[in-house]
Amino acid sequence: MTNVGESDRLVGLLTQGREEFTGKWVRGVTSTLAGRLTAAEVQQDLNELYTALVEALRNGGVATRNEAYGEVRSLLTELSRNRARQGFSPTETAFSVLALKDVLEPALADGADVKAYLQLARVLDDLGLYTIEVHAKTREEIISAQAEQLLELSTPVVKLWDGVVGVPLVGTLDSARTQVVMEKLLQSLLDLNATHAIVDITGVPAVDTQVAQHLLKTVVAARMMGAECVISGIRPQIAQTIVALGIEFGDITTKATLADALRHALDRIEERGPVEIGGLL
């Protein structure tokens, strides 16, 4: 029997036994999800997938990379992404496809239909692997988005006084975080019409050449907005490390504590009077 003939045979068998096969498929998948999805939700997903699979077999045979499987892949992409967002594992997601093999085996794996079953089993294996790939990619996207959200939360810009904003840094300062700090600081300077910014590094465990460069970039960016910038939280150990590494902060004002930096900023505001930031008084 040719592949085309086997495909036609599969289409006929799947069409004829649709109600029985989909019913068993839905029950089998639902039983493994421990009540996290209703039977109605699973039934909707699998019925649509079953219909698309039969059409793909009719129009494209068993070659899953064929354009005829576009609708099947689209449905599997949606299913896999939803399962990933809902917290299901890759195995649980792939089982939603592979469970159809267990349903069809008793009906097709014996006698004249065995070749057709083996062809379909290979198709379902390929589609199961596809769900794992999509699931893994979606989980990576979710983790990346969560990391960005945590980064945003870990770099707050707060208003300390009229015209003064502060950036309390805690933890390691790398390139990605520096970019977030600069963006939030510059936007806050503009939104609050602040003329002074205090970058507090009390919570930064260590300052090396790379961290110092990131701090300098932040200060330069603030100055380009017309604001003065002070670095506070220079502890004795940090000061010794900076001197030992030969790091130069140039004319950037540094203070031991946030309170000292705020006092300095208020004194400067009193001396200078109102100053424009971003073209606004």
UniProtKB/TrEMBL annotation:
Start and end residues of each STAS domain: 154-265
PROSITE patterns: STAS
InterPro entries: Bact_StressResp_Reg, RsbRD_N_dom, STAS_dom, STAS_dom_sf
Gene3D superfamilies registered for this protein in UniProt: STAS domain
Protein keywords: Phosphoprotein
Database matches in SUPFAM superfamilies: SpoIIaa-like (SSF52091)
Annotated signal sequence range: none
Keyword rRNA processing: no
Name the UniProt record assigns to this protein: STAS domain-containing protein
Higher taxonomy: Bacteria, Bacillati, Actinomycetota, Actinomycetes, Kitasatosporales
